[in-house]
Amino acid sequence: MPEVTDNRGVELETDTAPEIEALLISRWRSMTGAQKLELVLAMSQTVRELAVAGIRARHPQASDREVLLRLAIIQHGSELASAAYPDAATLDGL
Fold first, then answer.
1. What is the pTM of this model?
2. Percent of the chain scored above 70 by pLDDT?
3. 3-class DSSP string for the chain
């Protein structure tokens, strides 16, 4: 796929057709700050849900607490998660 540049001359590597990418950029530019925030929050929630689904698939017997701890480790790293949740340090097979 050829490289595409944005209006600032920045090269973008993408698997999206340039005309579609231009439509997306135009739509994003037309959104209000609140609309952009809503979009980002929705995407963040989707990523969290996917991470939890992955944890549950890998650890089907995990309690809700264990899922929370494993998610904290994914999001923040073992050291910070263990500082916030000392029982996170007891998990194995991360």
1. 0.72
2. 82
3. CCCEECCCCCEECCCCCHHHHHHHHHHHHHCCHHHHHHHHHHHHHHHHHHHHHHHHHHCCCCCHHHHHHHHHHHHHCHHHHHHHCHHHHHCCCC
